[in-house]
Amino acid sequence: MRAEEHADVLVLGAGIAGLSCASALTRAGRRVLVLEKARGVGGRAATRRLDGQPVDHGVAFIHTEDPELLAHLEAAAAAHGPDELIDWPLRVEGAGQPCLPRAFAGRERRLALRGGLTVLAKHLSAGLPLRLGQRAEGLRPGQIDCDNGLFHAPDLVITAPLPQALELLRGLPAQPELHSALELLRAATVHPCITVIATYPADRPAPAWDVCYPEGGPLALIAHDSRKRAAPRCHALVLQASPRWSREHLEGDPARWSADLLAAAAPYLPHELGAPQGLQAHRWRYARLDGASQLAEPLLIDLGGGQRLGLAGEAFAWSGGVEAAFHSGRRLAQRLLVGPHKRDL
Ligand SMILES: Cc1cc2nc3c(=O)[nH]c(=O)nc-3n(C[C@H](O)[C@H](O)[C@H](O)COP(=O)(O)OP(=O)(O)OC[C@H]3O[C@@H](n4cnc5c(N)ncnc54)[C@H](O)[C@@H]3O)c2cc1C
Asked: Which pTM was predicted?
């Protein structure tokens, strides 16, 4: 039977933006429901377990100088024991351009979690009412229609990657403020990323670097993921294809992706590493926002009739990546709390 539930705020998406927004609203006393189509939290801050070993096959590392995000990372790590939060990557190789050049600028710290980046998402989601496996199929003011349930709240917060968010927003009635927002968002570019996880026996020689940025060619980055782990059972590399190569091969054969990307990685790997023992390919259709498409702030639109629509996510803060997603969620929560619907808390 389809569930039907009511809340003060519905947050669509349990990525970092949705969770940071939902956790701030919950702390302020709002009744929040988080709706997520996947079976777990984290969105693109994703970790797979291969034979029990975590592998971050989305975000490779978090960069930030923000004390609030750092405090959350420390709190998330504390529950897992000492040395869970590590400065990573320490050794970077290659003449290629980092995807987010800002990550290596100024006072930015670059961080990873030994248990995988989903440790942060799990920390942010603690105590939140999550409805996993709920794919939103339609939106109306005050309502989100999912494949397994119908959800109602005066405030809706959408944090899906922009192209998916735009698809959902098409169902809302035309209104000038919304129309201008949609025009702005349609101009944004989100790049795809094809990734391949390659694993190798632990007794073979592995590269001495943490991250490599190849110059030119199909690869944007090779993350030596197993160097984040305390006692890795195998060497694990995550090969991330460049936006251009990913776009050109997006509908291709995963076996071909693996072969092509491994061939492109070969000059950067010790010859003795040999052939991988395991390969897993993944297509991120909407991986990263183009830097030129960043907006400064989340959007909050009055839909009339006491209903509002908030938009947050990596596109709605200037810093890019996970840090932007985190900020945009927090900032949107603040705006929802001081808006015309403010209640005595
Ligand atoms: C391969 C890769 C490498 C990256 N590397 C880095 C990096 O090193 N550093 C960095 O800072 N950033 C990196 N990024 C970018 C970073 O992952 C994102 O900027 C950030 O995680 C976005 O968070 P978000 O909450 O805005 O969106 P998401 O994480 O995409 O969360 C949105 C959520 O909405 C859900 N959703 C979507 N549609 C629906 C629907 N219809 N119904 C229900 N739920 C829905 C999704 O399942 C998802 O969980 C990388 C991304 C990729 C893919």
From this structure: 0.96
Does the pLDDT value for residue 325 go beyond 70? Answer: yes
- Measured CA to CA, the distance from residue 342 to residue 154 in angstroms comes to 12
| Residue 133 domain flag | yes
Tell me whether residue 39 is in a domain: yes
Q: Domain residues for 26?
A: 1-189+291-345
Domain for residue 1, yes or no?
A: yes
The per-residue pLDDT for 313 is: 97
Q: Is 121 in the pocket of ligand 1 (CB under 6 A)?
A: no
Summarize pLDDT for 113-141 with one digit per residue, the tens: 999 999 999 999 999 999 999 999 999 99
Q: Does any domain span residue 253?
A: no
**What Cα–Cα distance (Å) separates residue 145 from each residue in 17, 141, 173, 175, 296?**
21, 11, 15, 20, 29
User: Measured from the CB, is residue 62 less than 6 Å from ligand 1?
Assistant: yes
**Counted domains in the chain:** 1
Instruction: Give the residue, by CA position, lying nearest to ligand 1 atom 49.
Output: 43
| Å from CA of 305 to ligand 1 middle | 31
Q: What is the CA(11)–ligand 1 centre distance, in A?
A: 15
Q: How confident is the model at residue 345 (pLDDT cuts 50, 70, 90)?
A: very low
Specify the ligand 1 atom closest to the Cα of 325.
26
